[in-house]
Amino acid sequence: MGRPRTNDAAVRERLVACATEMFATRPQESVTVRALATAAGTSTAAVYTLFQGKDGLIREVRDQAVAGLFRDLAAVPVSEAALEDLYALAAAYRLWGREHRHLYTVLFGGAQSFVPSARVGDRDPVRPLVAAIDRAVVGHILAGDTTQIAVSLWVALHGLVTLELAGSLDGAVAETAFRSTIDAVLRGWATPAAFAALRRTDPAL
Fold first, then answer.
1. Ramachandran sector of residue 55 (left: φ over 0; alpha: ψ -120 to 50; beta: rest)
2. Burial code of 22-32, b = ≥16 C-beta within 10 A, e = fewer?
3. What is the CA radius of gyration of the chain?
4. What would the pLDDT profile of 19-34 be if each residue is shown by its tens digit?
5. Which of 85, 165, 196, 197, by CA, is between 20 and 30 Å from 186?
6. Using CA atoms, how far apart are residues 109 and 65, in angstroms rounded to an integer?
């Protein structure tokens, strides 16, 4: 009888799934190649054959998280109202984090973190957000450096989603906190002429 295959698509998928959960719920140093292989029902050789080791598997999990977040944010329709698009993008980011809690944890606070920077690639998750902010700046709705505005909005969103995933915010409290925080961040960057319009009492999130 031949040796079982250790590099097929099913094994790869199991390893990525197990790694996603383990890196999101355990300290990175405690997640060994042997532990990953055991959880996925395969051999340590499969980890090296498919991913060249633990670091390669971490990169694969991170890359899948980046691709998934980008896909969902890029799917948000672009309208003529940049401000409305920013609210919609914030809501889509929040929803993705809540529906993919382990991927979110790995990407933004686990084994490898995504760090926003001034260089935004074509498949960068923050690209749709940056594009909407650019339009808001050009339209004299927001004033300031696009990257700084994007980072401040991301920091607020990350804090909110992290608290929700930890169970510290839920229900009506989470909804109110989300709406008021996004409003506050955008008002902080608003031009004087646009400030009053940003004080929304019931934003369509």
1. alpha
2. bbbeeeeeebe
3. 20
4. 999 988 888 788 899 9
5. 165
6. 12
CB 50 within 8 A of CB 12: yes
- In sign, the C-alpha dihedral spanning 66, 69, 70, 71 is positive
d(CA 132, CA 60): 29
d(CA 134, CA 58): 33
| C-alpha to C-alpha distance for 61 and 152, rounded to whole angstroms | 26
DSSP state string for the chain: -PPPPSSSHHHHHHHHHHHHHHHHHS-GGG--HHHHHHHHTS-HHHHHHHHSSHHHHHHHHHHHHHHHHHHHHHTSPP-S-HHHHHHHHHHHHHHHHHH-HHHHHHHHHSSS-----S---TT-TTHHHHHHHHHHHHTTSB-S-HHHHHHHHHHHHHHHHHHHHTTSS-HHHHHHHHHHHHHHHHHHTB-HHHHGGG--SS---
- For residue range 51-62, what is the model confidence (pLDDT) as tens digits? 999 999 988 998
Give me the pLDDT at residue 8, please.
80
Q: Give dist(CA 39, CA 45) in Å, integer.
A: 14
Angle between helices 33-40 and 54-74 (to 10 degrees): 60
